[in-house]
Amino acid sequence: MKKFLFVCLFLIGLGWALSNFSGLANKGVYDSIVLDFREDIGVTKIVDEIKTISDEYQVTPRLNSEFSISDNVYIVKGDHQLLKELKSSLNKYTEYIEPNYVYSANAIIFEGSNGGPNDPMYGKQWNLRSINVEEAWNETKGDGVTVAVIDTGVTRVPDLQ
Questions:
Q1: Nearest Cα to Cα of residue 135 among 106, 105, 114, 110
Q2: Which of 49, 61, 121, 138 has the fewest Cβ atoms surrounding its Cβ within 10 A?
């Protein structure tokens, strides 16, 4: 009986949590749509469908990247209305048709940091404080500085000879 009660309470809690979760997709902004054609569709059919999309919606599908050729993944500029129309007309030829959401990371500025690092784990990094690097952030942020590490990958030690 206790297990049954526990499972019921768990399912009620899970249902409540999922109903209140809006997810990232609702907060995202998109101006393009990703089309992923099925693997078993021939190249000629894909070309025909791309031409149909171009003619019917006045948009030009383009490959997502040079690596998308074998996967048949295309990007189409469009909005919510085009997304609905493409989903209804191409659903039998595609694995998925989804919005191409654009997200951005927001900078985190800590109180009292004087424009210092925005790393949330900065307080645990003792090494930067030990060389008094915090004072340098008032002078420069490192703009225009290129740092390169050249390493041969081989250490000359007797064991490796």
A1: 114
A2: 121
The encoded tokens of residue 133 equal 């690097």
Give the Å distances, CA to CA, from 116 to 47, 50, 127, 131: 53, 50, 15, 15
pLDDT of residue 12: 92
Are residues 117 and 97 both part of a single domain? no
Helix (H, G, I), strand (E, B) or coil at 122: helix
CATH of the domain at 40: 3.30.70.80
Residue 94 pairs in a beta bridge with 37
Residue 54 belongs to domain spanning: 29-102
- What does the pLDDT read at residue 10? 92
Q: State the pTM of this model.
A: 0.51
Pair 138, 115: CB distance under 8 Å:
yes
Q: Please state the length of the chain.
A: 161
Indicate whether 50 and 111 sit together in one domain: no
Alpha helices in 21-125 (DSSP H): 43-57, 80-90
